[in-house]
Amino acid sequence: MDRTVEKISTGVDFDRIRADFPVLKRKINGRPLVYLDNAASGQMPTFVADRIDRYHRHEHSNVHRGIHSLSQQATEAYESAREKTRQLINASENEEIIFTTGTTDSINLVANSFGLSLLKKGDRILLSQMEHHSNIVPWQMIADKAGAEIDVIPLLDDGRLDMEAYEELLGERTKIVSVVHVSNALGTVNPVEKMTALARQAGAAVVIDGAQAVPHQPVDVQQIDCDFYAFSAHKMCGPTGFGILFGRKEHLEKMGPYRGGGNIIDKVTFEKTTYNVAPFKFEAGTPPIAAGIGFAAAIDYLNSIGMKRIADREQELVDLALEKLRKIEGLRLIGDPPERASVISFVLEGIHPHDTGTILDKHGVAIRTGHHCAQPVMERYGVTATARASFSFYNNEEDVNRLIEGVKQVKDFFK
Amino acid sequence: MDIQKKQDRIVREFKLLGDWQERYKYIIKLGDKLEPLTEDEKIDENLVRGCQSQVWLTSDLDDGKVKFRADSDAAITKGLVALMIRFYSGEEPDTILETEPEFLDRIGMKEHLSPTRSNGLVSMIKQMKIYAMAYKTKLQQLKG
Fold this sequence. Notes:
The complex is a heterodimer.
Chain A: H1 14-18, E1 27-28, E2 31-32, E3 34-35, H2 46-59, H3 69-89, E4 97-100, H4 103-118, E5 124-128, H5 137-146, E6 149-153, H6 163-169, E7 174-180, H7 192-201, E8 205-209, H8 221-224, E9 228-232, E10 243-247, H9 249-254, E11 265-268, E12 273-275, H10 289-305, H11 307-326, E13 331-333, E14 343-348, H12 353-362, E15 365-366, E16 368-370, H13 375-380, E17 386-390, H14 397-413
Parallel strand pairs in A: 3-15, 5-6, 5-7, 7-8, 8-9
Antiparallel strand pairs in A: 1-2, 4-10, 9-10, 11-12, 13-14, 14-17, 16-17
Helix pairs in contact in A: 2-10, 3-10, 4-5, 11-14, 12-14
Chain B: H1 3-15, H2 20-33, E1 55-62, E2 65-72, H3 75-88, H4 93-98, H5 103-106, H6 121-143
Antiparallel strand pairs in B: 1-2
């Protein structure tokens, strides 16, 4: 295969981009690493790692409260992440961007601060069968407290949501719809714009788990028109422990803080505390400053390539992998949605996904096996686990070939 | 047989094998030979928690010795489970509690002992020791 330079239709030299990720040069079990576990966490380019390193060595100071120059510089660098995030997802104001520790934390924040005050006994929360546990459990906890009920949009055989059932389930007691944008277990891209419009007609607020969407495609929260949108930095070239919650200003203004502490307050006496404005009232304590600055760098890095180009490149790789995987006898795709992003789940006949993953690892191919924190999805398709390959723009055709070769070796091994 | 001799014998067997492929194939073969549990025994009560693959473990006390039986839905895990049964089954509770399966390191399977592998081997060893502890207490009560 001619892979000296992979100038594809997008005009970006993705082969050179690989050099930005030193981890890709590693050997695992004697073979060059093929990293196909991007849905779990993405790799960090040197540009971002260097930015975080520079902050720690030369720029560290606490933010938001110092009068001295170092603190002001750190605050500016940290707050630049807010502006860059706003631009990335096209929110209308910086005040709508709340920093959290990750998607899970973001959803917990919405569930507690927004959900708990909104929900009355007998109200309903609508989730889908393809949700990650992080978009199920917080709602169950809140539903218990509020006396609300949870409804579930079922999955079709091909991995899409049953939209007819969705419309039927949207009732007048449905107050919140919380759905995933891109499924981490199936790769399905949900029609969130349409789903949001339907929910709005029914008078429900919409929360979207975008953990697997923002790293892979352009996302515009105004176009989707959702009320909340959550995602994580570490799946998009950024550090772990840093996440984002977009919330409409009208909601954030009314919502109370989720955790108590410093930074969130306006005035504290032991009799009464008045709270700071959004987003600060949701960000108690010293924030993960280095992570925020790292995330700002990650957005710069992704923008230097372009989210549309990233989406196109990943689509190319996923399509190629699908084409080749379909030809492997005894391989069953779990979910085969017409619109798919980055993720391919599969099982091999007679071989446990855990065994598949172990042997692939021996060949240097890193995939994920298990239930992917989406046990209802596993149940729906009658499996306890799947093998999941997930792609990023720094993967290439060689990685796809190594996956295919690896899967064939797994089959031979267990013959 | 002395449990330390069991360790040495397993290590000797694996020394005859070549690369990782041969060792894994041997492990899978050991799993194939393992007497399977009945469907009645593959119940949640017997499921070892903390595994990506499912591992079921049952135990009995027979003449002061612990008899283990187990099964798994994944082939490599099942082979490792078979090795652990061969190692601990038929031993007295004290022996099980006092002896660590050092042979796993010596046959190049140490990676499966990492808690992050979550293939259940660590959880299974822990569960075997919990059973041994329970039987030890039971035996002491009988004597007392």
